[in-house]
Predict the structure.
Amino acid sequence: MGRERSGKLFLLCCIVLAIACVCSASQADQLIATKVDAVGTPEAGATREPMIVEHPDGTLFVSGYGSPDLNAPQTVPRLWRSTDHGKSWNLVNVGSEADGAIGNSDVSLAMAEDGTLYFATMVFDLKTMEGAQITVGVSQDVGKTWRWTTLSKKRLDDRPWVAVAPDGAAHVIWNDGSGVCHSVSRDHGSHLSEPKRIHPAGGSSHLAIGPKGEVAVRIVPTSASGYKIDEGVDLIAISTDGGLTWQDREVPGHSDFAPEGTEGVTPRWVEPLAWDGNGALYNVSTTIKGIWLSRSVDLGSHWRTWKIADVDELSYYPYLTVSKDGEIAATWYSGAGANLHWQACRVKVSQTGELSVLRSPLLTTDSWSFPDAHGMAPVRDTAGEYLAALFLRDGTLAVVTPIQNSALKRYGFSFWTFRANK
């Protein structure tokens, strides 16, 4: 959330494709992963915290941010497009700073059923090391042309999310150290409503919209790029009237929040939510004892929780997606340093509440910490606080992971797809 923000986008990018099949090392591994690496120049290729959406015509979009060179910071939001189901990727021209296309930090993508693409991003001031602006871009022609709006320009603006309701209403949330803000557009992004407060404290951890336009916002204690922690603020805000009114709901399970780097506390930033096509709301969380999936069928009033994975190391930074037919997928990181790895799983819940879980083997990303001024060697790094996952329209599970390897001058992202090991 607004940390390690940097980079500058050049117009030229060399896309290098490396296709590899990651095979299971154990017969217990039930998902097989195939990946495609999209690698660009350092200036044009950095992709911390990549996000992914799919257009109704099958076009895929991936966004990310960052630069390995703080002296050449990114200024224009960065977006890639694939028209061949992820086999090859090219940079998208989203406009210039003069067009209002400004952003060098946290990103969020959302796709409406009519093909309208929303791209929310933030500006992180590298001099003050604070968030400074939230912008939203809209394209109605598969990324060919863009219209940009400055939604907020306040000190400590941070972590925007955008999501679209079935009726086409686009909802945007963010935080600024004084609570969580919300704005909505009902005219394809031409106008965004005056921001209103969902909650007077806490951070904008995640946003999800249900099949009847239900809006769920995960609010956590940490906000303002980590500069502020509001003790005791840990909730889900629910709206059933398009964001006009909100009701607070308790979060299932236990979540420990503390200043970053606190020993013995699970690292937490994005605490994901997702709805299925029947209006059930899902949450996934991690503890030192495992990965937990929770479901509510009454707008967050009551929850049922299952353990979907046992883990041998501290696990953190989960992400969640749900298909229209109710299949769930989650990703998470475990371990640190040389032992840092990640996993994906697909989950089906029967009508009687029994779970069927398929898990991938332990996987790694080609992402490393940037060498510091003391010349220390890079170590494996998450390069962000989640691994975005999406069920594609054909039912395939896709995950995007960052590539951040200064030693080999490799920057970009990996596009993973998963199939059952039959």
